[in-house]
Amino acid sequence: MARQIKINQIAGLMEKEIQEVVELTAVSWMRQIKEETPEDTGTLKNAWELKIDKLEAKITNRMEYAEPVIYGNNLPPSWGGKYRTRKNTQPGFPDRISKEISVNEVPAFIAAVRRRN
Fold first, then answer.
1. Whole-prediction pTM value?
2. Which residues, including other chains, have CB under 8 Å from residue 110's CB and lie 6 or more apart?
């Protein structure tokens, strides 16, 4: 039997479900981004930070060399104008991970949250 809720409860229920999906998505993204972050010492990988608020998550990396390694922007002179990592990482890999999660995981997260609530 379908659950009965009052119309004035819909917004609260939806907000709770969105919060859960945001959290599941952010945790998955964080796990995957750490796995793919090229590293020598682990400093760049360990510099990822996740902050989850009500309806949004912020994922940042505080290392000054994160931008060249992650996106291939502002390359240091020692790289001779060419993007390269020891793991042959593709520049912009966080964007690829985001797209994959949005297509492959978020629909399942939504379905799971809806079943639980």
1. 0.81
2. 17, 21
